[in-house]
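WARN retry 2 of 3 for item q-0093 after timeout on previous attempt; input resubmitted unchanged.
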Amino acid sequence: YRQAAPYIRLYDGRLPRDVPAGQPQEVLITPALGLHVGDVLGLAQFELPGATTQVRVVGIWFPKNPSDPFWNAHPYDTPNGCLQDCPPPVYPLLFTRGGFFNAISTFNARGNLTSQNVFAVSVHQLYLTQRLLLTSQNISGAITQLHAYRTELQTALGGVEIPLRITLTTRLDTILAALQRQLQVLSQPLYMVVAQLGGLALLFMVVVAMLLIEARADTLATLRGRGASRIQLTVTYLLLAVGPIVLAGVAGLLVAAQLAVAFILHVGTPPGLVSQAYLSRSAAPGDATRPAIVGTLLALAAITLAAWLATRGNIVSQRAGEGRTQRAPFWKRFNLDVLLALLCLAGYVELSQFGGLSVRAQLSQASTTADPLQVAAPLLLLLAGALLTLRLLPPLAALGSWAAARGRGVTNMLAFTQVARTSARFARLTLLLTLVVGVGIFALTFQSSVARNAVERAAYMNGGDVRIELDQTVQGTQLTDVFNQNMGQLPGALATAPIVRLGAHTTDDLGTAETNMLGIDPDHFAQVAFWRSDFAAQPLATLLQQMRAHVAGPNAGTADAPIWALVSASFASGLHLRVGDQLTLLPEWGAEGRMTLRIGAIVSAFPTMYAPQGGMGFIVADEADLLAALSTRDIGNIPHSGPTEYWLHTRGLSGEAAAREAALAKLQLETLVTSITDRRALAVALEREPTSAGIGGLLLIGTALATLLLLLACFFQAVIAPRHRGTQFAILRTLGMTGRQLLALVLTEQVVTYIFGVVGGVLFGLVLSTATLPFLQFASALDDPSTVGVPPYILSFNFVGMALLIGVLVIGFALSLALEAAAALRAGLARALRIGED
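OK item q-0093 returned
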């Protein structure tokens, strides 16, 4: 009882205690038994009426939340409303352990039992789960052990003489299997993020390595002319890179677990959800071994590729390449950008049909791993877009040269001509810039979309600012009158609306299907409810006005007075219904007869309403009509004259939640309330949901690092490029170009490429966000697949963040341009002629 006390709602009395044998034992009862504290209850066996005992009621209770895993799915309620062939009702009595055995001991003494008429006793042994011992690594092993234990129980006691029936009833293996399925589903967006960030890191390595190697272009060309092979030069640079890359891989392996724990604690999970000790135990260093090896091999491959490309020319081709690109890039010769675009298209087709998280959750893909094509689709989209942008760079630069030639001065014309004729020199940095900006736009859009959709999803789940659900023993009874009188007086309440919620199923002539029903007050609903224009083709005010105009009255639900109702599009399409059609439902509340409804309008979504799993959508009707229909079909004299919950519109000031709870306690209503949910707190919880917050944080950190790498690449190029073009600068100075003109030439070249890369990055970042983010609807909605994508996902572009990102890049570009300008102004003919004099 000490463990159960936090989960028990004690309506009256106290918990039972041990009393001496021979006295009435103390018990707890549920309200359905209809007794009071202090009553004495006589118990007798069915087959042995002479074996009796007495117990004393000391408390009346019910679980606070019967669906809480603590109760292990045990039903403590006593069902009613049965019409025929009813089994005897079972009223649960809760003893202490000693009191239970004292009570049943009298049966054997008074019943003269023999071995032939021993009464049956069920013994339940409850094993509590040590959750902190479960990690993603040992889930499969735990499921296997549970299956083995179940098999062992079925065979171990087969030779016992006393008849035994042994079963292992647990949902742990089901829960773990569902969790394992969720981990596999949620791994896909994580792999998408890692693919993008990893691709950017490798591209940075290629760009910087090629810049560093090409800074020694004259030396490399001379060596090639003296007999050094391309393989020898590539292996030389690779050997220089092996040491740092291997050390980086080992260092990453050693610190990966610590970095992961620090990241999760500060970004990926709400404070207090899990402890640092649990995370440290779960994030095993060995888990990073495979990524570390893969990353090291990819880095070595990137350096090898950079060295191979940078050493492909001799002295003649190197000199000729300074004035014009001699050969089209590999990707352009083989139309690699077109091929990537086709692969990207295939990936998004598969993603939309089979790989979207909503689809994967609905299909419950339990054993599938992330599809490489789906994972790579966003990266392929960005890379294909960037390469297509680079294909446009030479013709657009040539167009700029043509336009500049018609103006005054030669500097701009030379700059555009240089970009058009030697586009390969600028392509690498432009490609990196386009990808970094694109990923940055994607990350910012992801974060703002998560925040917006968390707010709107919380509002949809809650209905109003505050949702007060009544205890099931109060729902639909006259006890709700006291709520009707006091809800509007609660602290912070600006408006209230009563709500009736129940289930129903269609009749046989339409086929049997479950549905959810909601009764609303059309006069007050709009004042408290969250609504979005895409929920229905008509405004909410129009729908409520039509509902008020079609009140059915006291005979609501009969064939002569059908209830005017809103139905979901899925319900209408599933039953092939149209506006104006009538249908008949069987409600769950003791309705012996049928309830007739007429479809007044079809909506796409409605706050708090989801299609039940395996059901046909939902129905919304006037609360008064719904209660009138239910009250005329009572069974067992159970009136259905009140709401099941209330929605409140509140100011949202600090301290109002505690004041409302205190007000309910003062009115002695807190024991009649099952839950009070605040929309604002729910939105914060959803926004901080570990998966969304983790991936969003990883994207932002990755974008910040990618931006830093991009600026480093710009600085490297600013320092190295003038050295590579020293002879060209010296000749231009000798031909009469002033230092200011040379500076303008260099700045114009870089500004053109920067603008081109930023514009392309913004464009394809927006395309990437629009194409990808709608498929990443996940978070805690995967606990119930029917809630995925409800309400519909909406993109939210963070234009302030985008402007800030571009502003940071502009500052970095200005610094790199200043470095390049300073290096270019130091170039002279004498310095250039001394190159290679040794």
